[in-house]
Automatic annotation (TrEMBL):
Organism from which the protein derives: Streptomyces haneummycinicus
Location of the region described as Disordered in the Swiss-Prot/TrEMBL record: 34-55
Occurrences of domain ATP-grasp (ranges): 121-173
Keyword ATP-binding: yes
UniProt GO molecular function: ATP binding; D-alanine-D-alanine ligase activity; metal ion binding
Statement: the UniProt record of this protein carries the keyword ATP-binding: yes
Keywords in alphabetical order: ATP-binding, Nucleotide-binding
Lineage: Bacteria, Bacillati, Actinomycetota, Actinomycetes, Kitasatosporales
Protein's UniProt name: ATP-grasp domain-containing protein
Amino acid sequence: MVSRVRVWLNRTYAENVFFMDQLRRNPSDRAVEIHATHGDPDSPVLAAADTAEPEPEGLSPAAYVEYALAQCERRGIDVFVPRLHQSAIVAHRADFESAGTALLAPPPEAVAVFHDKVIAYEAVQAIGVPVPPWWRVRSADELEHAVGELEAGGHRACFKPASGAGGVGFRVITRAPTR
């Protein structure tokens, strides 16, 4: 009999409840136990997990790696899918492997590329992957120019910081004042 696989998702996106369902309905019909941690106690990921607990707040990346290693050992995690502090975690891949935990995460070089959306867009464009029209802006004049170009092309302009995750900082740009 094949043993179940224990998977940990840390502070992942709410949409990953669908990923969790896919893990459970795998073609091999292998049992999957999902552990989730999150800073938001109302995260749907926590509700969908088999076991869940709050994320510790305020840990440095190095301290988070120590927490994660202890969590993997304590819970017998087979596969860790990190989102929070991913750069620090993948730099310690060998430590996780020594603890019996595989990291489902890209190598450090790829994490660095995708940490900055401008670098990521440039990297994928360089290999022929289409991306939506975009501009890096650093001033009000550059922003006005980019918005004008997007509008001239029939697009609605939006703003997203070059780094950060989820919807943090995302804004749709309008010309009408908001209340």
